[in-house]
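Input record (Table S2, row 451):
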Amino acid sequence: MAAVTRQRTGRAEILWLQSMGIMDAVLGLRGEVPWGGTQPRGLCHITLTDGRGEVIWRSGAPWAGEHPYLSHFADGMMAVDAAPGRAPRVLCLASQGGEGVLRFLDLGTGRMEGEVSLPRNDYTWVLCGRSDPARGGRTVVLTTQDVGYYAGGHGRHSALFLDGEGGVIREVEVPGDGHFPACFDADGDGWDEFMLGYDLFDHDGEHLWRTDYWRRRRINLMRQHADQVLIHRGLGEEGWTAVIPGSDALYRVDAGGRVLWRRRWHRWVRRKGVAPWPVRTHVQFVALGRLLANDEREYVFVLHNRFGMSLVDLEGRVVWRGKLPENWPGGRPACVEADSFHTGTPMVLWKNPLGTGQDLLVYNEAGWPYAVDGRGSRVVEFAWPAEARQADAFRLPGLSEAGARPPYRPDDWGYGYRCLTEDIDDDGRQEVLIFDRRHCWVYGLEDGAAR
Ligand SMILES: [Ca+2]
Ligand SMILES: [Ca+2]
Ligand SMILES: [Ca+2]
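Output record (calcium ion complex):
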């Protein structure tokens, strides 16, 4: 994963994490790699670079294996904390001998300042919020990713509330929590709250409320976990709402936990010789912004787990439905089947790149990224660099024959690309950073043309 910080010098710097991701990424493989145990454990290598890619420091040993390593969902395993009156630091989830740990590093030097043992090894997200802000206090919240469908899973979702030094405050059950929990000041008092799935928690882990729809219903962890909590504050509006892709439905929830609307979709399954039948789409991820030209309203772009995409307005009305195509200008690697990706962060918002007020979406789930508007029209293409070709570079042992699939998801082995949008040269306009495990390519717009 990669994360941008400005906490050290005020200028944009990028933290790069090499990690196995959740539970040492043994999920789905039942602890074994098919070619005989070359998958290492406990990889946690962090590099800080400046906006031009110059290395400032490195921490831990980089991956040095002959073959690619398996990494699953490391998207939220690192956070930066800049409490007033103290040096900024990096918080990172890792594992040590198969046990979960939380590490604290000095952001200035990369030096490890401390490490606390965790009761579990399936935490995937680290959040750091303000607690007792007058004294620079912090609450650290770790959430799990285990809903019982991975080998070795515990079958329940929980979150661990820690103080700023890693001391345990309490552990809470969060049955509907999936990915992308939110940390924000929900009531404007300067202390941060945490929305984990359909539940809002106070700074000390006290449960404040559950979204009303789920107060008297039982959440099916497979079908109804919240894959994302997107907190939205409208321009000039007081308060906030949450947009939650909840697996089989999309919700918009107000600041009191009331569902403003809930929308579901279906798609038709067609098999030879039988009548088509409908199944629910998996509402997996959303992005929110001013996504249409000459329209100041905001819209929600919905990804249905590669089965399609929708655009809805803030009232839940569908404006557009379609599907963004795959894009492999250098040729699709043989083992990557169309639609096989299922990345944690399939899309990022590109704020006002054209200077018109309209936002674009950089889509990175199906090959080389490109930028679209809210109706899926391709607006910006990023010039293809020859070194981005992955067909042979990522070949795995035993998979030399064309078309062979690697065990588990190809993107977990490094196929495909990830993206970030950030103003890394401080000129007031966001650049697009496209990266894989070897390279990062930076794109910007100058008078509407890629540079
Ligand atoms: Ca608060
Ligand atoms: Ca509070
Ligand atoms: Ca810039």
